[in-house]
Amino acid sequence: MKKIQDAQIADKKILVRVDFNVPLLKNGEIEGDKRIREALPTIQYLLDNHVAKITLVSHLGKPDGKRDESLSLYPIANRLAKLLKNDVKFDNPADEYKISDKISLLENLRFNPGEEANDPKFAESLAHGQDVFVNDAFGTAHRAHASTEGVTKFLPSFAGLLIQKEVEKLSALLKDTEHPYTVILGGAKIADKLPVIKNLCSRADNFLIGGAISSTFLAARRHHLGKSLIDTEDLREANVVWQSLIDTPNRNLYLPKDIVMSISIEKPDDIQEVDVEELLQPAFEDYSAVDIGPNTIEQYQSIISDSKTVFWNGNMGISEVRSFANGTVEIAQALKELSQNNEVQIVIGGGDTVAEVEILGVESNDNIFLSTGGGATLEFLAGKVLPGLKALE
Ligand code: ADP
Ligand code: 3PG
Ligand code: MG
């Protein structure tokens, strides 16, 4: 991978792809600015090396090739200016936000249909008037879009500091690691997670499963999950993966022993802590799984506390409803405690998951790395080729 440190950048105009696709609250405010903060080292590196101009580009959300003011980068430009301690004014709406004399941020790339279509004309228009392209959008590296892949055909292209750090930390999970090596997976879409289990099953010792994906695994094992969220089209594949792990010596796939069920998934309603054995009969047909249960939490915490290498992606329950966040919070707590022991390597990926450990005051350090990627992190660990990274080779 070609690195920014190898590029001739003094007095050059630099186009920088960042991933400012931050979570937004319903009122449009920024929920977490981690992805903006993580872009700062590359911006600072470019300034320290006396570039002439920095043009930042990013997407936000999925506006489907049309202008959508609720997905404008205006609030992000504001936050970036604050983080860089610049006091700037800009018009709203605009196509280019001036952050300082040297830095500007273009409006949401996905307002243009050429971005996701990887249209060479759009890529060329982004490259126009620029000297060098720096990609620092690790979170978008799994997309072959005009600003991640197409543009590299028009400019000398290099990886920024964030992409380099992400690749280094995630690659370590695919090499020789310290054991026990534990992979914790939860969240909602099992189709994104099964490839990770398959790729890591020759390396990791323990797979701890929670969240809606554990409902899919349990349903595949003939449990009755009532109204729980289940990926029905992936039941067969879930069963195949479960069986292959059971058949492999020294590999353990753990499903919850007990789960918390509720009539409503929006608020606690007739909460039941159910032993999964009870679900071999259709006894909770009006209920949904909303969290892992206390016995599961205890078992998972004990496995985590003995681990030397850990990867975690995906919440253990519907943690947006704080009454259903217990499993997620307890796993986050166990990882925080583990990270205080200095001979461990912990990587946490995914927007919702990283947000949970940040609430506990955990930040990246030598023992723990909070990845900025969601889908990109999963695809990297699934062993897939990420087009945004390949284009920098
Ligand atoms: P991340 O954002 O960390 O990558 P995901 O997007 O994969 O994580 O999963 C988080 C989502 O999974 C949350 O919105 C959460 O509500 C949902 N989820 C977790 N457990 C359940 C469950 N039992 N039923 C329904 N949704 C769930
Ligand atoms: C992400 O949030 O995973 C990245 O910003 C990519 O966004 P996308 O899934 O909309 O392509
Ligand atoms: Mg998510």
In brief, what are we looking at here?
With 393 residues, the protein is α/β, with parallel strands linked by helices.
Layout of SSEs?
Elements: E1 13-17, H1 34-37, H2 40-48, E2 53-57, H3 74-83, E3 96-98, E4 103-106, H4 113-116, H5 120-127, E5 132-135, E6 157-159, H6 161-172, E7 181-185, H7 190-200, E8 206-209, H8 211-220, H9 235-247, E9 252-254, E10 258-262, E11 272-275, E12 288-292, H10 294-305, E13 309-313, H11 326-339, E14 345-349, H12 351-359, E15 368-370, H13 375-381, H14 387-390
Parallel strand pairs: 1-2, 1-5, 2-4, 5-6, 7-8, 7-13, 8-9, 13-14, 14-15
Antiparallel strand pairs: 3-4, 10-11, 10-12
The structure holds adenosine-5'-diphosphate, 3-phosphoglyceric acid and magnesium ion (MG).
Strand % is 15-25%
CATH domain fold name of the largest domain: Rossmann fold
The CATH superfamily of the largest domain is known as Phosphoglycerate kinase, N-terminal domain
Label the CATH architecture of the largest domain.
3-Layer(aba) Sandwich
Q: What general form does the structure show?
A: globular
Q: Give the CATH class of the largest domain.
A: Alpha Beta
- Rg is 22 Å
The biggest beta sheet, please? 6 strands, mixed
**Helicity level:** 25-40%
What structural class do you assign from the helix and strand content?
A: alpha/beta
Beta strands, count: 15
Instruction: List cofactors, ions and other ligands.
Output: adenosine-5'-diphosphate, 3-phosphoglyceric acid, magnesium ion
- Put simply, the count of helices is 14
